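Bench log, entry 3. Co-assembly request; chain sequences pasted below exactly as received.
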Amino acid sequence: AQTVTQSQPEMSVQEAETVTLSCTYDTSESDYYLFWYKQPPSRQMILVIRQEAYKQQNATENRFSVNFQKAAKSFSLKISDSQLGDAAMYFCAYRRVMYSGGGADGLTFGKGTHLIIQP
Amino acid sequence: EPEVTQTPSHQVTQMGQEVILRCVPISNHLYFYWYRQILGQKVEFLVSFYNNEISEKSEIFDDQFSVERPDGSNFTLKIRSTKLEDSAMYFCASQQGVHSYEQYFGPGTRLTVT
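Structure output for the full assembly:
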């Protein structure tokens, strides 16, 4: 079974600085997706960024980028120019690629990292 | 922009009672999911649903849980006899197709069992 580990329960960063959130995972699959979700106090789950395992290029979305190391099974999230609105729980998640006729796997989440932005 | 909706936003029930949590997925989506998040813990997969039947389920999804798509729009999660430990946030999500990568989450229903 796949597992997702986030070793940082809490991180703090000064506004406008850069912060990196760590995530490692374990799987025997070769095709999968990795995601970072943001959960603000409203508890809505918001997709921040995704990475397809077959792509070597790291995904980027504006101020958010990932460092995907497939051999090391590592998937960290870098937030540049941190803003007060970035304060939230961040969850790393894994899902294997679905195929026609196969099952609809759910996402496997890590325990989350609480990101605090210091003004 | 289309979104997943869930009702109610907060449900309080007594232990042993049955509850039904409702979700309206995005209209052209084919895959539907329920997740649970106990306060302060990670989000856990409960069940997925496709083509009018359960596709996958986790160990958490035991006989007290059931899911249904009673009409073309609603997707429900029923808990037959609630326990204190069922208190959690329940999220519904939907996904367009097998090759889609993103699951769109609803805002969640907070279930409190007293």
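Chain A has a mean pLDDT of 94. The two ends of chain A are 41 Å apart (CA to CA).
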